[in-house]
Amino acid sequence: MNHTVNNRHWKILLVEDDEDDYVLTRTLLSEVRGNRYDLHWATSYDAAVHKISENSWDVILVDYDLGSHTGLEVVKNVSASGCHAPVILLTGRGSYETDVEAMKAGAADYLTKAEANSLLLERTIRYAIEKRQNDEELRKSRDELRKSRDELEVRVRERTQELEKANRELIKAEKHMAMSRMIASIAHELNNPIQTIENCLYLLSNDIAGNDSGQEVLDMALSEARRIATLVNQLREIYRPMKVSPMQPLDICEVLSEVKTLIAPHLQHQSVIWKQRLETESYKVNGILDQLKQIFINISLNGIEAMQPHGGELTVEICRDALNQKIGISFK
């Protein structure tokens, strides 16, 4: 609709093949107090169809009798064309059947010409426009409600999927934590007897010094016990809750020196010589001290074990890339 009811500036299409009735309708509208309107006249069904297609009317008044056509055909055409203007059927035969027939065709109301006056015509037009406006607002509200409902359903579905995924992850995490606690507990329980076995083997190796065949077997057993102890400690570290330490600038040369000091007893006992080929300048990197030391210790111990039973040299070197942006540490 082009105008609200309160503006009362109506653009009206009158479909009427009788000029006298057109003049009468125009006169009645002119008598409406305070009203402003534009009355357009279609003298036939075909002219009405053409004008209806403009879809710019506030209300359409249609005579029931239009020669070879009826006003009901015009009403149906209005509905079929997508025009939203309310249609009021004007008829000279007021009856219940005509009323029902007009409503079924899509008319907003019908008015008997014999009873028509300016007041009744104005009120009928006003009510029809107001009803159509209310219907349009209701339709828009329903569309918005439907859209909101669809959007809500999508959000609920997405949220449900997110919650289901989070729940699966939580169950997985709980299972992992339970397994972690179990493995950590087993590793802890294994660590004590392994340490005892390792100490006993070490004492036995001192008692049979000079017995080459027995010493070789004991050294092998001691090496394997230490390897098991290392594996157990690694399990404990893997499944122990991680404490996030901050990154800090570290001097790799200093870290390697600490590693050498920590594994010095192993080097001596396994007849391995530590050779460190480093430049005089320092090598600064960002890292976590304890984790770097543990990595270097593990690599060194693996190297020491690989040299058994005869021992050897463990050479540690630091090298740079061509752009002097990265460094690498090799254990040979």
Could you characterize the architecture of this molecule?
This protein is of the alpha/beta class and 332 residues long. It folds into three domains: 9-116, Response regulator (Rossmann fold, 3-Layer(aba) Sandwich); 147-242, Orthogonal Bundle (Helix Hairpins), CATH 1.10.287; 246-332, Heat Shock Protein 90, CATH 3.30.565. Helices cover 58% and strands 18% of the residues. It is built from nine helices and twelve strands. It has helices at 19-30, 45-52, 71-81, 96-105, 118-207, 212-238, 252-262, 264-269, 289-306, and strands at 9-15, 36-42, 59-63, 65-66, 69-70, 87-91, 109-112, 248-251, 272-277, 284-287, 312-320, 327-331. It has a five-stranded parallel sheet, with helices on both faces. Strands 9-11-12 form a three-stranded mixed sheet. Helix 1 (19-30) packs across helix 5, helix 2 (45-52) runs parallel beside helix 3 (71-81) and helix 5 (118-207) packs antiparallel against helix 6. The longest helix is centred in the middle third of the chain and has 90 residues, at 118-207. The protein is rod-shaped.
Topology:
Blueprint: E1 9-15, H1 19-30, E2 36-42, H2 45-52, E3 59-63, E4 65-66, E5 69-70, H3 71-81, E6 87-91, H4 96-105, E7 109-112, H5 118-207, H6 212-238, E8 248-251, H7 252-262, H8 264-269, E9 272-277, E10 284-287, H9 289-306, E11 312-320, E12 327-331
Parallel strand pairs: 1-2, 1-3, 3-6, 6-7, 9-11
Antiparallel strand pairs: 4-5, 8-10, 11-12
Helix pairs in contact: 1-5, 2-3, 5-6, 7-9
